[in-house]
Fold these 4 entries.
Entry 1:
Amino acid sequence: MTCRGTHSEIRAVSAVIVLGVLLDEHLSFAQHMRSVGKRAARSFSKVSRVSAASVYRTVSTVALPVLAGMLPAYYEVTIAGRIDNARDGLVRSEVGALRRRIREEMVDV
């Protein structure tokens, strides 16, 4: 559903983020809690991989992110900068697709 005004257009969405909290159309926090749970699981997974990789005494600090299945920090910063430069005027799903494309380009280089 879309409402059109004289100079703008407002699209209806099923959920919106307000002050970092995801609210759905029923003002329920269920979707927010699922989202937080998924992010926490991903973070815990990364931390546990780093912990597992750090048990090796001879692992270099350069190899540690690779063993943990993460990109080195300078790649993450470069990716974030490229996304920030190109995200103006894009909706959330387009930014997600842009992020995936840029990550693939960076990894393939």
Entry 2:
Amino acid sequence: MILRERDVEEQAAELLTRHGWYSLKTDAGNVRRGQGKAGDLPSGWPDMVFFLSLGDDLLCLAAIIEMKTVKGKVRPDQTALHGELRMLYRLPVQIVRDPEEVHAVIERGRQLRRLLGGGRW
């Protein structure tokens, strides 16, 4: 069965949330389609951002994720913004087409948390 983008988002968010990540859906797509008020999100901003506590009050880890179907195409404005985030700020944007792909994010979060002394997590 081919998953819709909404299904990929929901299943990926559920997996990450189950492993301690906080989920934030940006609704960037709704603004682009005229279904929401334009705010401060630039055109091409990814669908979701996930946050993981490091066990202190100052910093956290973030995963910036663009959700797509198996055949979904990354739009030119997305490609441009994702490239800008990577080049100017070294912020990687993950393209997730299958919810199981977020296991790599979960594992990397665990590794970094341990390295940075993230408490009981």
Entry 3:
Amino acid sequence: MAQPNFQYEKRQKELAKKKKQEEKRQNKLNKTTEEGDENPTQPEEIVPPEAAT
């Protein structure tokens, strides 16, 4: 009877984990990039008319 190859299974599990972490990192970068694109179109500081006088 054939024995299971635990090293292969472990390697595949590690690769899947690494891939998932990389996808999370990319999603995080994309999210911050999208937010960064929106911010320049909006004024950085809005001063109410009462406080300006």
Entry 4:
Amino acid sequence: MTILIRKATEEEIPAIARLAGQAFHPTTDWITRQVFPLHLQPKDIPDGEASQPWRRLKKTVGFSTPNCAFIVAVNTTLDKNNQIVGYAIWDLPVGSSEESPVVTPADPELPADVTDFKVFAELKTILEEDHKASFGDRGLKDVWRSSSPSSHCHCLSSPLSISV
């Protein structure tokens, strides 16, 4: 098996979002099940699919942010389409605001009909408090962060710890 690690292209965002949906599927991922509870999911689509438009939009917004790096792991031997088998989204650390200003994309709106906003707000508050406690008042501004199938939250990582 040959895995190629390279920068993602914008055309690959739907595949990255699908992979995120598989890795963080509500049947196996407790956090996703809390934010997108079963009783709010439409009955006419498979469980887990209701969050896909939001996942694609969130990845699209991040992709267009200059301090974000999207990396994909591609299995070049699986088929001739070079299937994406892993991804990492890195928020690059920023220095002083003069040399590289932070560009924080607005989070896309969560789908109101399938989201438990109370749980989402609690989760966001917990993460923000943890970031400050762990890294100080600048939060994650000086930290390489990864969002990948191997991590639910943004975690302190080195640039070489891309998971597939």
